[in-house]
Amino acid sequence: MMFTFRSLSLAVSIASLVALTSCGGSQNTESTSTPAATSSPVAATEMGSNNMTSTGKPKININTAILSELDKLEAKLGVPALSNKIQSSRPYGNIEELVSKKVIDQPQFDQIKDMVTIEDVVLTGEAKDVDYMTKLGLMKGHLLVAKELLDLQQPKQAEPHIGHPVEEIYVDVEDQLNERKVKEFKTTLAGLQDLVKSKPKDAKVGTEFANSMQAVDGAIASLPDTQRQSPQFVLKVINGLLDTANSEYGAAIANGKVAAAIEYQDSRGFVNYANTLYKTIASSVAKENPEAHKAIETTMAQLSKAWPTATAPAAPVLTPEEVSQLIKTIEQNTQKVGK
After folding, report:
1. Residues ≥6 apart with Cβ < 8 Å to 310
2. Spatial separation of the C-alpha atoms in residues 242 and 251, rounded to whole Å
């Protein structure tokens, strides 16, 4: 499944969020998507709480969310290809149109109505920086699993993961890249994708892959060193990556089987990069809160067992419920750091 890593539903502070109604600006969808419906802005004090779920996370904008975010709804309802169906039925004038447009039925809508909105959430301050680095982390996760598949001589499986960063995530982070004066690298990502599609065994693939990874790393480096080295900041990014991995894994598993290999691989890449990020702050976390560090490290190791290989196994090693519980345990322990 192709996903438009649209704007991620990150677990960020309400105080850092300013809500506006969805407008017809840049779209976080694939080029084939219909532009979102427009509406007049509403003051944040009037609607801020309406854009948050009961757990304090931003709701999913069904007009602009990228596919990996929509996958959270797919995983919740267990409806195959629901993300694509939601995207192809845009724009929505209200969330009830999910039912009137026959995307889902009323009982299904009742299960997810508190998770969705047609209003945009504008991030400010640290929440904006967390969102930025998380999106770039998603790019890294895709490229990491793509490299594993290329090394296994599986270019057809690798290509979608090379395509996701350029086709889906880049457009969602482009404004922030421009604000931070990061050199354009969409062309670099597109060049790698084209090469893998047409000449996967070309010796240039390795060079182009390295250039793409370097470009993403350069974009991450636009954040201050102090922020990228802050355990509290990095842990928020890790939680964002794991939250998305959780929804992707849930969408991958059906009837006790790995029914969607791409989602399985997506989640593997995101968890692998989350592990890489944690290693950069592990010593600091261990000094500050050794018990939380031990719990995070141990649970991360247990979580990683869900993805024994880059190619999907026939049957899942862990159930979606087990993966969700492990990710919840990690999140609970990250919240102990810095207190």
Report:
1. 145, 148, 149, 152, 154, 265, 268
2. 14
Average pLDDT over residues 33-45: 33
Query: What is d(CA 169, CA 40) in angstroms, rounded to the nearest whole number?
Result: 26
Assess whether 34 and 78 both reside in one domain.
yes
Say whether both 240 and 337 belong to one domain. Answer: yes
* Domain assignment of residue 6, yes or no: no
Phi, psi of 119 (to 5 degrees): -100, 145
Percent of all residues in the chain with a pLDDT value above 90, rounded to a whole number? 72
Mean pLDDT over each residue of the chain, to the nearest integer: 86
Written as one string, the DSSP assignment of 261-324 is HHHHHHHHHHHHHHHHHHHHHHHHHHHH-HHHHHHHHHHHHHHHTT-SSSSPPSS-SS-HHHHH
Residue 300, domain member (yes or no): yes
| Amino acid in the structure at residue 120 | D
pLDDT band at 261 (very low <50, low <70, confident <90, very high): very high
Q: CB atoms < 10 A from the CB of 291, how many?
A: 10
Residues 302, 195, single domain; the answer is no
The DSSP letter of residue 187 is H
Cα distances (Å, whole numbers) of residue 82 to 62, 73, 86, 323: 12, 8, 6, 21
Q: Are residues 189 and 288 in the same domain?
A: no
Question: Is residue 85 domain-resident?
Answer: yes
**Cβ atoms within 10 A of the Cβ of 95, count?**
21
Mark whether 99 and 38 lie in a shared domain. yes
Across 32-37, average pLDDT: 35
The per-residue pLDDT for range 91-126, each reduced to its tens digit, is 999 999 999 999 999 999 999 999 999 998 788 899
Structure tokens at 1: 């499944």
The count of domains in the chain is 3
In the 8-state DSSP scheme, what is residue 57? Answer: P
Which domain, by its residues, includes 287? 228-339
Residue 235 placed within a domain: yes
For the ranges 54-68, 109-123, 325-339, the lowest mean pLDDT is seen at 54-68
Pick from 102, 123, 144: which residue ends a domain?
A: 123
* Domain final residue, candidates 206, 223, 240: 223
pTM listed for this prediction: 0.80
